[in-house]
Write a structure and sequence with these properties.
Layout (H helix, E strand, L loop, with lengths): L11 E3 L10 H28 L1 H4 L6 H17 L1 H14 L2 H19 L5 H4 L2 H31 L5 H9 L1 H16 L6 H8 L1 H13 L5 H9 L6 H8 L1 H31 L5 H29 L1 H23 L4 H29 L6 H17 L1 H12 L2 H19 L7 H17 L5 E6 L3
Antiparallel strand pairs: 1-2
InterPro entries: MFS, MFS_dom, MFS_trans_sf
Pfam families: MFS_1
Subcellular location: Cell membrane
Length: 463
C-alpha cells in the first residue's frame, strides 16, 4: 500500500474553480447536504428497523436469535450492492456530470424506501415477505452507493480551496441529520405499536424526497467537470483508468473508510440490538441516546472537517482511529451497567467522536487523492467497497457475541481501529503546510488581480 515515489507534492494541474470558490458554493453545499440527509434517513432507517422490528416482522418469530441474524443479513445485502451503485454512479458522474447522478440517486432511493412502508409481513405472505424486503433493499443499496460521490464532489469542486474540509464536512453532516430524523421518526412512532411503528417512518420519506428533488434540480453543475468537457479531457472509461493508474489510493481509502463505517455498524447498529436482546435498555432509552449523539454529531462532523483545513487531513484521522482502537472494551463496560446516563455517554463517544472524527475528514481527503477526471469514480469506489465489510459487520458481531459474549464485538471494534491507524500512516497527506500556503498565496493573487487562478493545490495528480 506504499508508494515508491518520494513524499514531495505532485505538480498542480489546471482548475476551473477560483481560489475563493464559485458564487454558488453555499447553495451547492446546502443542496448536497439536504440530499445526503434524505438518503441517510432512508438507508439508516432500515438499519434501525432491522435492529428493532424486522426480525419478527419479516422472519419467523419462533427463534429470536435466528430472526435477528436474518434481519442483519438483509441489512447487509443493501451494503453489499453499494459498490455497484458507486461504480455506476461514479462512472456516470465522470462521464456525463455530477448533477444528473445526484437527482437520479435520490429519486430511486425514495421509491424504494416508500415501498418498504407498504410491504406485507411474514405473517401475511410467508416467505415472500423477506424476498420482497431483499428486493427493495437492493434498490436502496444501488441508490445510496451512487449518492455519496456525486454529493461530495459537487460540494468539493465548488468550495474555496482553503475551506474544502469545512464545506465537505457540511455535506457529511447531512448523514447525522438523516440519522437524527430517522430515529426521531422511529421514536415518535413507538406509541403506534404493531406494524405501524416501523411503517410510518418509511412512508414519511415521500415528503422528504419531494423537497430534496426540488432543491437538487436547482444546483449548478461542477465547474471542474465543465472544465473537463471544454478541454476535451473527460475520461472515456474512468473505472478502468482509476484501477490501472490509481489502485493504491483506492485500497488506502477503502481501509480508511472501513474503520469508520464498520465501526459504526458495531457501536451503533449492533449495540441497538444488543441493548434490547440483553434487556439492558428499552427502545425509548436506546433511541433517545442515539438521538442525542446524532444531534451532537451534526456539529462535530462540521467541526472535524473544518479542523482539517487548519492542521491537515491525516492528524485528525489518526486521532479518530486511535480513539476507535481503544474504545471497544470501555464501550461494553458502560453498556452493561444498564444505566441510562452511561448508555448516552456510550453513544456520544461512539458516534460523535469515533465516527464523526473520521467522516468529517473523508470528503476532502478522498477527493484530493484522485485527479479530477476520475475523481468521482475513484472516491466512490473506495467509499462504497467498504460497505461490503460494514454491511455484514452486525451479522459478524452477533455471531461473535453468540460464541464468546460481548468481548467478541468489543475486540472487533478495536480491530477496525487498528486497520484505520495503519492505513492512515500509509496514506499521503494532501493538505500539509505547503498546500495550505499555496492556497493562501493563490487567494491573495486572485483578489489582487480579480482573475481566476490557473491552478488549485487540491487538484494534484494522485501518487
Amino acid at each position: 500500500m506504499t508508494d515508491r515515489q518520494p513524499p514531495a507534492p505532485a505538480p498542480v494541474i489546471a482548475s476551473k474553480t477560483p481560489p475563493e470558490g464559485t458564487p454558488a458554493r453555499k447553495r451547492v453545499a446546502i443542496g448536497a447536504s439536504v440530499g445526503a440527509t434524505i438518503e441517510t434517513y432512508d438507508f439508516i432507517g432500515f438499519g434501525t428497523a432491522a435492529a428493532l422490528y424486522f426480525n419478527t416482522a419479516f422472519f419467523p418469530s419462533s427463534d429470536p436469535l435466528s430472526g435477528t441474524l436474518l434481519s442483519f443479513a438483509t441489512l447487509g445485502i443493501g451494503f453489499a450492492v453499494r459498490p455497484l451503485g458507486g461504480i455506476v454512479g461514479g462512472y456516470l458522474g465522470d462521464r456525463i456530470g455530477r448533477k444528473p447522478v445526484l437527482v437520479a440517486s435520490l429519486l430511486l432511493m425514495g421509491i424504494a424506501t416508500v415501498a418498504i412502508g407498504v410491504l406485507p409481513t411474514y405473517a401475511q405472505v410467508g416467505v415472500w415477505a423477506p424476498v420482497l424486503l431483499v428486493t427493495v433493499r437492493v434498490v436502496q443499496g444501488l441508490a445510496f452507493g451512487a449518492e455519496w460521490g456525486g454529493a461530495i464532489l459537487m460540494c468539493f469542486e465548488h468550495a474555496p480551496w482553503r475551506k474544502r474540509g469545512l464545506y465537505t464536512g457540511i455535506t457529511q453532516a447531512g448523514f447525522p441529520v438523516g440519522l437524527l430524523l430517522a430515529n426521531l421518526a422511529f421514536l415518535a412512532s413507538v406509541p403506534l405499536g404493531g406494524d405501524w411503528a416501523w411503517r410510518v417512518p418509511f412512508l414519511l420519506s415521500a415528503l422528504l424526497i419531494a423537497v430534496g428533488i426540488v432543491i437538487r434540480l436547482k444546483v449548478d453543475e461542477s465547474p471542474e467537470f465543465e472544465g473537463l468537457k471544454e478541454d476535451g479531457d473527460v475520461s472515456k472509461n474512468p473505472l478502468l483508468e482509476v484501477l490501472r493508474t490509481d489502485w493504491r489510493n483506492v485500497l488506502r481509502a477503502f481501509c480508511l473508510r472501513t474503520t469508520e463505517t464498520a465501526g459504526y455498524a458495531v457501536t451503533v447498529t449492533f449495540v441497538l440490538s444488543y441493548l434490547t436482546s440483553e434487556k439492558l435498555a428499552g427502545r425509548p432509552v436506546s433511541l433517545t441516546a442515539l438521538l442525542i449523539a446524532a444531534t451532537v454529531g451534526i456539529a462535530a462532523t462540521v467541526w472535524f472537517g473544518s479542523l482539517t483545513d487548519r492542521v491537515g487531513r491525516r492528524p485528525v484521522y489518526l486521532f479518530g482511529c486511535v480513539i476507535t482502537l481503544l474504545w471497544g472494551i470501555p464501550l461494553f463496560l458502560l453498556l452493561n451497567t444498564g444505566v441510562a446516563v452511561a448508555i448516552v455517554i456510550a453513544f456520544l463517544v461512539s458516534y460523535a467522536v469515533c465516527q464523526n472524527s473520521l467522516a468529517g475528514v473523508q470528503g476532502a481527503w478522498f477527493s484530493e487523492l484522485f485527479a479530477a477526471r476520475t475523481r468521482t469514480t475513484g472516491a466512490s469506489l473506495a467509499y462504497q467497497l467498504s460497505a461490503v465489510v460494514s454491511g455484514f459487520t452486525p451479522l459478524v458481531a452477533t455471531a461473535l457475541f453468540a460464541g464468546v459474549g460481548w468481548i467478541g464485538p468489543a475486540l472487533l471494534i478495536s480491530f477496525y481501529g487498528l486497520l484505520g491507524l495503519v492505513a492512515t500512516l500509509l496514506t499521503r497527506e494532501t493538505w500539509g503546510p505547503l498546500e495550505r500556503e499555496t492556497a493562501i498565496e493563490a487567494e491573495r493573487a486572485h483578489r489582487a488581480a480579480g482573475d481566476p487562478a490557473s491552478a488549485a493545490p487540491s487538484d494534484r495528480v494522485a501518487g
